[in-house]
Write a structure and sequence with these properties.
By secondary structure, the protein is an alpha+beta fold. It is globular, with a radius of gyration of 13 Å. The structure holds tetrahydrodeoxyuridine.
Length: 127
């Protein structure tokens, strides 16, 4: 999978972010086991705690399309370089990949940055 394609899709979907409270838009793109890709953006709520992150939105769409495992995830924000997934999203990513983890792709001024989930969520909880 071309990670630049995933990042381009994450950027595209970040335009649809519903973030009237934080004004912080995020887009995410995951590739499933099938090779298909799924996108999601964050959407906030006036009851702030109900906010859904872009990563979880993209993963939910993948699951709703029959995916059980994801192979990689790209995350983009027009508001910040190197927009890294929050702790809750790291745990949700963990649920849908094996012990070897998956690549988590962000964008820095130097270009794409690729880290394994196990690097950014060490000793992660799994049943
Ligand atoms: N957000 C995401 O979409 N993904 C993350 O990993 C971190 C935060 C969103 C949630 C909220 O709408 C905004 O960014 C500011 O926290």
């Amino acid at each position: 999978m071309d990670y630049q394609v995933l990042m381009d899709k994450a950027k595209e979907v970040s335009k649809f972010a519903y973030a009237p409270y934080s004004h912080f838009a995020v887009g995410a793109c995951v590739v499933g086991e099938s090779g298909n890709i799924y996108t999601g953006c964050n959407f906030e709520n006036s009851s702030f705690g109900l906010t859904i992150c872009a990563e979880r939105n993209a993963i939910g769409t993948a699951i709703a399309n029959g995916e059980k495992n994801i192979q990689a995830i790209a995350i983009y924000s027009p508001n910040s370089q190197d927009c890294s997934p929050c702790g809750a999203c790291r745990q949700v990513i963990s649920e849908f990949c094996g012990p070897e983890g998956i690549d988590v792709i962000t964008l820095t001024s130097e270009g794409l940055k690729i880290r394994n989930l196990n690097e950014i969520l060490p000793e992660r909880f799994r049943l």
